[in-house]
Specification:
The chain has 228 residues and is α/β, with parallel strands linked by helices. It has eight helices and five strands; from the N terminus they run H-H-E-H-E-H-E-H-H-E-E-H-H. The chain has a single domain, classed as Decaprenyl diphosphate synthase-like (Undecaprenyl pyrophosphate synthetase, 3-Layer(aba) Sandwich), CATH 3.40.1180. Helix 4 links the parallel strand 2 and strand 3. The two termini are 37 Å apart. The model has no long low-confidence stretch (mean pLDDT 97). Bound molecules: 3-methylbut-3-enyl trihydrogen diphosphate and magnesium ion (MG). Magnesium ion (MG) binds next to loops.
Length: 228
């Protein structure tokens, strides 16, 4: 979800106005994805690197998080959406950590769409914590180095037990991954749009779905094999 600040600046508004609008768009996108049968939606809300922003902006983002979690959790549960926060939560204020756990508990019994909020998340952080888990098992004598497999690494990442993403969407015109789900995106189709996140809408989302449908996913094979 990129481009909140630039969207606001173009309207002579403070950057934080862009974040407020961004929350509204996120809400709408969750609603559309749930309706369209998306199984897992991951929103990159706050990266491990976003702490470097001006302190006022960071505080606004924290407050927006808290209020959105508090406001939306019950509605998510009502719509059968299960929320889960991925990332290093220990970096957040305690109040926000509590709010995250509460929202997860409220939606824990939902069986519909899984909504992952990546917060204080970084793909490299995820790989580090995964390696630490496996390293610990090796150190405990529970695992042999040569027994490490792709599946095992997948199972200690923060997206354990979830399918790998089919489609990645980045708004705001930048063409990069910026430390999102590095391992998980290996075969994901990438879609980039110039639209800023606050102006991302159903039309643009449907366009991304259509583009995705036209792609041929070969997973290293050739066209004829896929079609057979
Ligand atoms: C994305 O918009 C929102 C967050 C990272 C929280 P930005 O804040 O990165 O907006 P730009 O890229 O400066 O326009
Ligand atoms: Mg940005």
């Amino acid at each position: 979800m990129d481009g909140n600040g630039r969207w606001a600046k173009a309207r002579y508004l403070p950057r934080t106005a862009g974040h407020h609008q961004g929350v509204k768009v996120a809400r709408k996108v969750v609603e559309i994805c749930a309706r369209e049968g998306v199984e897992v939606l991951t929103l990159f809300a706050f990266s491990s690197e976003n702490w470097k922003r001006p302190q006022g902006e960071v505080s606004t983002l924290m407050e927006l998080f808290i209020s959105a979690l508090r406001r939306e959790a019950k509605d998510l549960a009502k719509n059968n959406v299960r929320l889960q926060v991925i990332g290093d939560r220990s970096g957040f204020p305690e109040k926000l950590q509590d709010e995250m756990s509460t929202a997860e508990k409220i939606t824990a019994d939902s069986t519909g769409m899984r909504l992952l909020i990546a917060a204080n998340y970084g793909g490299r952080w995820d790989l580090i914590q995964a390696m630490q888990q496996l390293g610990q098992r090796i150190q405990n004598g529970e695992l042999a180095v040569e027994d490490i497999t792709e599946t095992m690494i997948g199972s200690v990442l923060s997206t354990a037990n979830l399918p790998e993403p089919d489609l990645f969407i980045r708004t705001g015109g930048e063409h990069r991954i910026s430390n999102f789900l590095l391992w998980q995106l290996a075969y994901t189709e990438l879609f980039f749009t110039e639209k800023f996140w606050p102006e991302f809408d159903e039309d643009e989302l449907q366009k991304a779905f259509q583009v995705y449908q036209q792609r041929e996913r070969r997973f290293g094979m050739i066209s004829e094999q896929i079609n057979a």
